[in-house]
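Re: the pair you flagged

First of the two:
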Amino acid sequence: MNTKSIIKNTCLLLIFLTIISCSPDQIEEIDTQNISSETFDEGKMGSVFRRNNFYTPPPSNIKRVVFTGSTSADLNLFINQNKRDGAIIEIPQNTYTWGKVVLKSNIHLEIAAGTIIQPDLNRGAIFNIGASGNGERLQNVSIISKDGRFTIDMCDSRFTNQFIAAARVGRVDNFRLANFDIKDRRSILNSILMIHVSGASERKPGAKNGIIENISQTGSHTGYGLVQTYNCSNVLFKNLRCEGGITLRLETDDRSMKNDVKNGTKDGGVKDIFADGIHNTRGLSSLMLSPHFAQNGKVTARRITSNSSGFTIRYDEGTLSIFDAQRAFPLTDAGKIQFQNFVKSQFSGFSGNAFRENAFKRNNGTQWAVNLSPEILDHPNRSQYIRSQIGNLRAGKFVNPTATNVEAKYGTKAKLKQKHLKFVPCNQWNKMTDPGSSFGLFRGFEYIGPSGGISIGDGVRITNQRWNNFPSGFIQNITDNTQPKCSNSPNSIQQVSGSYPNCN
């Protein structure tokens, strides 16, 4: 064998050894992400996403018991019977109608693949984990499917525009939710809520140390989605997919939390949040960060992708909402201006940009609200009308959030908010439609049309970006200083009757 052949064979052997030494995740990263623009240290980055940083599974000798009942009452009784020593409760495959199931410490629900769970309630959550302010914090709780996935089926017209959720997660340490699908029909809560539990004894009454992973949702309401976080720490969100709405909504705006924080009695918000493999289709965005009034900590994200969605990442600067508490102003264009002028007048001596955007309707279009700018929130003078709603709170923030390996694929079935329409080129407006009030909401709440770009807002440092199939004229990353692409009126958009999700 000549020298040239030896060198060739040696190179081939080295390539082969390199390939077989890679994990499947690493191969996927290399195959699907463009990393030429910046070196991506998978080893260093991957270590912060390790599961044992967030959750400790139950011991191998924990008791196993089989649930033989059918109703929520049966399950709650069975949980209470096994809470003393703890147990893995095996749920056989079946169709169950449940509501207000209350988990206890050291209780793990292992639900058989193929099981269907339907809501048995008109308001609230099917599963509640540490949602009460009474008693001690929970520890060591999980709801998972083994050897497959189960389904939470909320896709019924009874639940459209109703306050229904799959799970509320509050005062718990060491938890896991995994391996299930959610079928929604535009209910008006995010399906998994990381809640702030007002009235609890601890300083920070939210979830700590946990994993939410391998969950998908279809049929989401545009204003909601799969997960929303109000108060939690050291949580890994992994492999989450959502059709419609927002997949992972780090929006820390809760009325009870605001009251607790403004009074100085509690700490709210989120910190040490890790997001890996978050995807959205035909919705607003995959990942949203909106601090409102909360002083949040670090967010580290990777593999954030979207397909025919408004944006992959959306960042809103900190703000607080002021409501027309007495509903004193008419729900007209003139009433909107009057309300804005009234709110600005409550900050004596202020001149400048008072609002992030124009006033908007809340509570299903029955009440005006307006988001205050960080500038006016820093103003020293505020009236009792303002203090009664927000105290002395200032604009919230996150600490240096980052995202790497971020991708947007262009499509024309994205959901868009009215304030984002101006960034769609005028020659693309014929691809937009307005569902008006056909979803039971006021006209202007949402629009359907082209994807907007990879990101909107200035707050997240994004590296290793890819955007695919966007026509010329679109903007990859829209910042707070980006100039509009089109000044067309939203009233020029064709009105259509919106289509509800197919529940079959």
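Second of the two:
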Amino acid sequence: MKRPVIVDAGPLVALLNRREQHHAWAQEQFSLIAAPAYTCESVISEAAFLLRNVDRGVEALMQLLDRGVVSLRFDLSAELLP
């Protein structure tokens, strides 16, 4: 069963940068999870910085957000103990 996950900048960069050594792994992992993968603005900022020299890297990152593959609706408040 596919489950949603919280994703950090590293896997996003690996997914979008074909030259990254973990690119194939990232593709496989993203095929196993349910969309959307949850993240936060700081992760998107870091990934955009790391993708700045990758042809259309930042554009591809924004497309993941636009298509709902990655979502910024990351909130841990429901997980906090009362």
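The mean pLDDT is 91.

-B.
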